[in-house]
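Notes on consecutive records. When two proteins share a document, each keeps its own sequence and its own token line. Never mix them. Below: protein one.
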Amino acid sequence: MGCLFNFDNYKNNIALITNDREVTYKELDQLSYEVGMLLDNKSLVLLVCTNTIDSIISYIGIIKSGAKCLLVANTDIESLLEKYKPQYVFSPIEKNINAKVIKEFGSYIACKTNFDVDYEINNELAILLTTSGSTGSPKFVRLSYNNIVSNTTSISEYLKIKSSDRAITTMPMNYTYGLSIINTHLANGASLILTDESLMSKIFWSLIKEKKATNFGGVPYTYEMLKKLRFERVNLPDLKYITQAGGKLNKKLVLDFYEVCSKKNIKFYVMYGQTEATSRMSYLPLESLPEKAGSIGIAIPDGKFLIKDDKGCEIEDIDVRGELVYIGNNVSYGYSQSYHDLKEGDKNYGCLHTGDLATKDADDYFYIVGRKNRFIKVYGNRVNLDEFEHIITSYGYECVCTGEDDKLNIFLTDNTIEKLFLFNKLMKDTGLNKSAFNLVYIDSIPRSDSGKIIYYKLDSGE
């Protein structure tokens, strides 16, 4: 990991930027070294993440020391402390941690915990990240140093990240996509504009203009908000490219942003990834739009996709759905549920069964068509809930669908949509009997900090 965060060639470059402070790579190197001196390479450190200078300093210091970093959101961490029993906790000063403070730096403190447990940690383990799922599970993905270096190198290659780039943060640091933007920019001597402000904040748009951001990333929900904010009217002369991952962006929005970005001379990258693959697995080459809109594109450099049937055999024919399987050095070692699992080695051996259903076209471009576990049976008919959601959103309605056999729940945010009208339209377009439909009006779709839908918070009312 030292080769990833070797800042010798970028000492005078600006690494971190906030509204009122700038930190050079030379300063970042020194400050993170001081943090790392507190640790040994056998320890586990729980890092409470924020998009701040001191959080980044902590992360770099932990990684460069050889210690293992468990990245979590700035929420209740008591259950995680019990499950993982870290030797250290790094957190914002205001967080109430029941541990001995051994260093205070800026807005953060480093604490030594009282856990008297001796457990083995795999030497190759670098970080632990929450899974990309939104179920609230404490399950973490075990990522090695090689996983991070491999994915960072591949992403840097296809995005052509340069030291002159400036990315503004739009996602939590402990979210795999947000962390990958941090890793790729720091690995290339580029700059990070740090903020926890949302796109709905005037402060965010002031920062992106004043600090001359050249790029940002976003999940599908980010792009839905940008559409509502009329992104096409926003004047951002320094913006060079934007990226999208963290879920499938519907084809209409892909085409809308392709058109807007083309007019503004901004590059628009559609990508696909999972925490289990460190971050990204594919990207849609710029020249393939608009023709390939709706596709996740091709595998990243040094990666490979296969589509397999239910028997595990490769599907080579075009337009035949099966499970998408990814092969690459960025595939994680597996999962952990507690400190007992940290001694485990690589259980995936560079091969990830994504759980996504996909097809490929004649040019070997791949298309996600649903999730293996997002199927129900409705009166004998197999229904893909993702495809059903897509049908309703194509009508112009914001919706989420859940269900069980013979019951399909439709959650709408617009209570002016008449139930019988919608059901009759769905019957006509899908052939399903409307008696299986259950309509629920909700104020808003529950989402995680990274914009993913939290399905378990939806109440069908029955």
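Protein two starts on the next line and is unrelated to protein one.
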Amino acid sequence: MSAIEKQAAEETEQKKKDVSKAKEPGLPQNWKRIVITIWIGQAFSILTAYSSMYAGVWYVTETTDSALMLAIASLCSMLPQGLLSPIGGVVADRFNRKYVLMAADAFVGAMALLMGMIIFMGHVSVELVLVMSALRSVGQAFHIPAMESTMPLLVPKRHLVRINTLNQSLWSMALIVGPVFGIFLYTVIGFQMVLFLNALGCALAVATIATAKIPDFHDTSDEARHPIKSLKAGFATLNADRGLLVMAAIVMGVMAMYAGINSLFPLMTYDQFNGDGYMASVVEAAYGVTSLVGMGILFVWGGGHRLLRLVALSGFFAGIILVLTGLLTPDMFIFFVILTGVSGVIEAFFNGPLLAVLQKRVPPEKMGRVMGLFTTVSALSSPIGLALAGACAEFTGVANWFIIAGVVVSIGGILLGTLPILTKLDKEIAATFDEPKVVKRKVSSRSKKSEAGIEE
């Protein structure tokens, strides 16, 4: 009887998957043009957002000269996104994702315009900057799940890694250019003008999304109408797929360790290599440039079919690089720069394929909720990693913490690549690459048969 029940449950689950696939909208024929249109708008929005963010950081630095206030500013920019992303995912699944994206960009732009006007009237303060950082983070909590769950509706599965890499490169370029551009504009044209530019960038993003033809696909079930039930359904989707659940736990650990390490690079330059600001900037530039090189390689290659294996290898070798970095002596700064550059290339193969695993695995009608949960994992891992690294590095020393963190990251990579439940998940994801081709052949063969019947 148990075998019969098990078989019935499997048949029911398969029927649900078949129904989900049947409901999926077809990919638009001009999907490349749509993606490029969206990408251009997002490029202006993200660049101006990072510029205004770093202008705010510079204002807090000049005004308070306090590491505590800078830490509070960082928390204001991270915590709202981490806490609200699950709700943002629910909204992305419940409503038309095109309008969710437009509303999120419009909200951030309106807040930037309002803050700019307040500063223009002479009411600038540290508290105002903190509020602006928090409000921008709220907008991102709704924008990121909606954007990441929209891409699978526009892009063929075999190109998801490339598109994710393209989006990742945009964020990386913003991280490189944003601080320079933001602080330069802050000193030349003033804080309020940087915020006005941010509002203009958001307006352009809204305009490009408005002109893009994005399929209207969202969850119309009764469950989706109730926010709490809908949020529970997102957790249930992850819980039902134990492979994704295990992967999420390991990835959170790896991200937490890396978030802490990234904050220690300047201190590593100063303490271990007796460096100055110029040497620290060389290290940051080496990482930024080589990470773009790695993303370029991944964009051209596409990542292959075994995406989780690629993520695992990236994590393992990134950990090895951290261990080698911690073993360097004070007279080996040039090797520190080289290893940092190598890590930039290696780490580029982590995020893009990881996101594609989720996009291929999760049903489209629940994609927003799952992406929201993973955004929370990413956002909350940063403050956890920062707190852990700050406390532990005081006792172990910065160089020794690099070694410890490297060992943990490498173990995470090994687990991602060797646990049976994850190797099974990786093989199942690899099998989905062939689905579009198979469907196409079946359709073409059927059309040929129908044409032959007509001729007869």
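For the record: The chain has two domains: 30-210, 225-431.
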